[in-house]
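User: Methyltransferase domain-containing protein, Micromonospora cremea:
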Amino acid sequence: MFSPQGPSLRELCIQALSSVERGYDLLAPKFDHTPFRTPDSFLGATADALSELGPFDHGLDVCCGTGAGMLVLRSVCQGGITGVDFSAGMLAQARSAHPDATWVRADARALPFTEYFNLAVSFGALGHFLPTERPALFEGVYRALRPGGLFALPIGAPPPLASVSHLATLGFDLAMRVRNAVWRPPFVMYYRTSPLPALRDNLTAAGFTVTAVALTVLGRRRDGSSRCTLILARKPADLTDAHSRTMSPPLVRDCVTST
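Assistant: Predicted structure for Methyltransferase domain-containing protein:
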């Protein structure tokens, strides 16, 4: 499951008993050698789909981690690209790998941007947000986008009920619920709390117009449906006053403190 450069079982246990922020600070130097990093095939399929909708100007990766999503933004954005994450350790790795990007430390539930970006993306982060926290996340992304801006969010299809993957994710989520019930600080990471209908509802409530594209290049399930869907949430264009606004650049300071 892990390469020799990845974390040991002891390191994973220490990280799992930490807060989300502290856990990722500890994992950061070895994160790219784990299965948790977004696969290149996933990134490539997203970039190909977005290339047909762009080009875009400024791009934002929400919960950027070590910066894998920068490969997508760089391929479709003509302006500056920015990553935001609340883990200082993950941002340090991202900054080292992509020194030409802008990096902002902030809580994604309170993004410090206003109408600056044309494109926002996020990869594999939804499990770190409870369903009650998603509205604040999506409202922040909506606020960060210019009128007409796009939020692209690829998600995998749920595994079949009789599959090993279904049982594994079910078992993982149950174990995390038990862990969080008996241990503090909590570590929020669940695989089964972000179904597509709920995401659509949350994005629509935030003001987005939501469509979806099947990323069939990543394979199909036995029933013929795609293994991965790219959610496309568009902020409505407001041509009346969009051109009269002065767009301010993203903040480039730490916006959260360790907890």
